[in-house]
Amino acid sequence: xxMTFRYYGExxxxxxxxxxxxxxxxxxxxxxxxxxxxxxxPYEKIAAIKEAAESHGLEFEVVESIPVHExxxxxxxxxxxxIEAYKENLRRVxxxxxxxxxxxxxxxxxxxxxxxxxxxxSGAYSLAYDHEExxxxxxxxLHLPGWDESYEAGQLQALVSAYQKLTEEDLFQNLVYFLSNxxxxxxxxxxxxxxxxxxxxxxxxxxxxIIKGEEDFDRLFTALPSMANGITFCTGSLGxxxxxxxxxxxxxxxxxxxxxxxxxxxxxxxxxFYENGHLSGAGNVDIIGVVRALTxxxxxGYVRPDHGRSVFGEAPGGGYGLYDRAMGACYLQGLFxxxxxx
Length: 342
Ligand code: DNO
Fold this sequence. Notes:
Elements: E1 2-6, H1 16-20, E2 27-30, H2 43-54, E3 59-64, H3 70-74, H4 79-95, E4 100-104, E5 115-119, E6 125-130, H5 131-136, H6 153-164, H7 168-189, E7 192-196, H8 214-223, E8 229-234, H9 235-238, H10 246-253, E9 259-262, E10 264-269, E11 272-276, H11 287-296, E12 302-305, H12 323-341
Parallel strand pairs: 1-2, 1-12, 2-3, 3-4, 4-7, 7-8, 8-9, 9-12
Antiparallel strand pairs: 5-6, 6-11, 10-11
The protein binds D-mannose.
């Protein structure tokens, strides 16, 4: 297991110097920002992340994310050009030493929350989600931190309507088409692809979502058994469905998990939850159970603390503050060390 930390590049207020001060963290998870989705990343920009990270004693072995162009998800004839660019990006990041690429196959919207300033009685803030609130929002006017918004304003309406006509089966077949082209390159260059589950794991605004839980993973691995076909095991995304048994899934797929996002959430009703610090007792996610299941079943991947609360007077925001994620990294490292040394 290698403990990592997300780094949004030079504009990130949480500098590499700060990240290198979080003792268990040995590497950053980052991406080339500012290149339109579907284009090839200039190698110098990839190498620049690696050099900057290494100058702080950190590795750069995980990319989150190389975003997938909407034409690929829609299955348009233009997809082949974008798939070629994707393959080239895999070759380039691999050349810079990257071993794992996180991506998602969520149409139009990436992760969704309805409250970025959910107040806790302690004075901390976190992210929260309420499906009823979401339905009141205008899907054409939503933006969240870290989203890769590949479309232009005018295109969004057309995209949303087009996706509303796509079935889950169509979308799944488009994912299979994409992966059957990309996985051979991933294998050749030694990169493990790690699909991020849908967050939240249900359809939104009439748009299909297909990576929601066990059945979807089984279907994906049956279609494409290559070991380069893996999961980003995000406990917060998968765990938003209270019926999902995270400990069982962690055990079942441990070897298919090159990358784990570990975080906490508390269910407050149907389709309703708020996030919390990483501690196992702080919410409904059995973090200890997940770590145990991973370590006992051959997990050998990267871990990162995921969304934390805003604490110690930090401005509430997108879940990517410094302190709570730093505490999370230390806590998670402790759990892994404890399990591994038992
Ligand atoms: C949110 C993140 C996601 C994730 C992408 C991966 O906090 O987990 O934005 O990076 O879905 O492609």
